[in-house]
Design a protein that fits this description.
By secondary structure, the chain is an all-alpha fold. The protein is built from one helix and no strands. The relative contact order is 0.05.
Amino acid sequence: MNNDPRLIEIETKIAYQEDLIQTLNQTVIRLQQQVDKLELTNQQLRDHLRQMQAQLPSDHNPHEVPPHY
């Protein structure tokens, strides 16, 4: 077996890089799952808001000045 210090250093760096790539990949997967969950929650909130707005009386104007003004 060749014990050339340069070869050992290169192999060590490659091993660390492979580990780093795997760690980064797991991080990207976890973050994508969080983004997917947040997008779903956002869509559900928007749907709920639309349902609430649909239940308001049709003559309701959100920009109307209250009567005490």
